[in-house]
Design goal:
single chain; mainly alpha; 3 domains; 20 helices; elongated
């Protein structure tokens, strides 16, 4: 049987078993239907693997799996499930091994195959695209392999943008897919995914022998000049929608549609947009590696430069959203770290583009990003203290806003520890509000006691930064 027909037969069998499983098992109790489904799985496995019936040990294991399925009809117990899975897994794995040696080793093999079964869909996607490229069915397979990447990638980016942008979410919600996909609930999709894992293991088991390589090293199925060009075109169009909305509403301050506030628009999506930018960088690294056919096409290079430019604008919009969130709810160490992370992502995207245009090696890209990350971490550890920046920003903003401004989160400032001591003293001395002055004084007293105890050295908590903080605090309080 040719590989094309083999894939087709197993794909049809898997789809049929999924539909039958939905009919017999979804939201049904264990019993008659479970046993009947188990027998159907055994029959389908025997049909797609005819050599199982020519192997005596595999035939015995297949028969034991059938008996386990029948026992589910006899009595609802957990043990038959384990026996069914074990026997059927052994049956499909035996012809791909050197034979049955001992039960202990095969118990370990069954457990290992059960763990790696999650990777079956990814492996099959790889081989399916490769088979389409090698044996196109009147060009249909090659077209499907070319369209798979841009369609799937475009849907992923569109879903991320819908999560980050309420306007895109509203447009997609207006399409009301529930009218024709009312049965497609989250529980049902999860059931299909869970059911497909063991089915993939039994219908397309992992071999225990080395496979012959079918394509040159470094090349991925489905990643061709045509598919990458189509993907970059689709991605640029999808990103242009998000960036256009950001430029119009977030950056220019234009009036938003009725029902959408600036807070809703600005305070959502900073992190999904960063995930989007990281996925974009990963796509460029995989699809346009130096030395591949796609990396040497000028048209693709121009599309990549345009797309990375759009990603940089996306990162800038994410930073603006985060700053808007900070303006509304205050600074925190995590928000400060997010802004630093966004800067590193933007730099990484620029380095990816520079590597593509100059033909730099992957080692250069890794080292450049590692150096940038090391400099950022070193700066935060030795030069700029995020906790101090957070405390100074929140108290300075509260001081400038006065009584009409946001309330100060004194509990959070207390959790920042000695980093908030000097900012609290400055705030206490500058504010004219008696309640705020008292609150700042209480915080200052608590932090001062903690810092002085730590700096005595009795507990081993003395630090250079703590000494500088204590000296600055005493200077402000006139205790020198």
């Amino acid at each position: 049987m040719s590989i094309r027909h083999l894939y087709r037969t197993k794909a049809v069998a898997a789809l049929a078993l999924l539909l039958l499983g939905d009919l017999l098992l979804f939201q049904c109790e264990v019993g008659l239907f479970t046993g009947l489904y188990g027998l159907a799985v055994v029959g389908a496995v025997a049909f797609v693997h005819p050599r199982l019936l020519r192997d005596r040990a595999a035939t015995v294991a297949l028969g034991l799996a059938g008996l386990s399925a029948l026992s589910l009809i006899e009595e609802r117990q957990s043990l038959p499930f384990l026996l069914f899975f074990t026997c059927l897994t052994v049956a499909v794995a035996l012809p791909r091994s050197a034979g049955f040696d001992d039960a202990l080793r095969w118990a370990g093999r069954v457990g290992l195959l059960g763990l790696v079964a999650v990777a079956v869909p990814f492996r099959d996607s790889y081989h399916l695209l490769a088979a389409f490229e090698r044996r196109p069915i009147r060009g249909l397979g090659r077209r499907l392999a070319t369209l798979a990447l841009p369609l799937f990638g475009g849907l992923v980016f569109l879903a991320l943008f819908a999560d980050a942008n309420p306007l895109i979410e509203r447009v997609l919600a207006g399409l009301d897919p529930g009218r024709w996909l009312h049965f497609l609930t989250g529980d049902r999709v999860a059931f299909w995914i869970l059911l497909s894992i063991p089915l993939g293991l039994w219908l397309r088991p992992f071999g225990l022998r080395r496979r012959r390589k079918t394509r040159p090293a470094g090349e991925w199925p489905g990643i061709t000049v045509a598919s990458v060009g189509a993907s970059l075109t689709v991605f640029n169009l999808v990103f242009a929608i998000e960036n256009g909305l950001d430029l119009f509403f977030l950056w220019s301050g234009a009036d938003l549609p009725e029902g959408v506030t600036l807070a809703d628009y600005a305070h959502r999506g900073a992190y999904p947009l960063i995930v989007t930018a990281l996925l974009a960088g990963g796509f460029v690294l995989v699809a346009l590696r130096p030395g591949t056919a796609t990396a040497d096409v000028p048209r693709l290079r121009r599309l990549v430069v345009l797309w990375i430019g759009q990603n940089l604008l996306l990162v800038a919009s994410s930073a603006r959203r985060t700053l808007a969130y900070v303006d509304a709810y205050g600074m925190s160490e995590w928000r400060f770290a997010a802004l630093v992370w966004m800067a590193l992502v933007a730099l990484g995207l620029g380095l990816v583009c520079w590597r593509l245009l100059t033909g730099r090696s992957g080692r250069w890209l890794i080292n450049a990003n590692a150096l940038a990350a090391g400099l950022a971490l070193g700066t935060c550890l030795l030069v700029v203290d995020p906790a101090t920046v957070t405390a100074e920003w929140n108290l300075s903003r509260a001081l400038a806003a006065g009584a009409s401004g946001p309330s100060v989160d004194w509990c959070y400032l207390g959790r920042l520890g000695p980093a908030a001591l000097v900012p609290a003293i400055r705030f206490e001395q500058a504010t004219e509000d008696p309640e705020l002055k008292d609150a700042a004084a209480r915080l200052r007293q608590d932090l001062m006691i903690d810092l002085e105890e730590a700096q005595t050295g009795a507990t081993g908590g003395w630090t250079f930064r703590g000494a500088r903080r204590l000296a600055a605090a005493r200077a402000l309080l006139g205790q020198d």
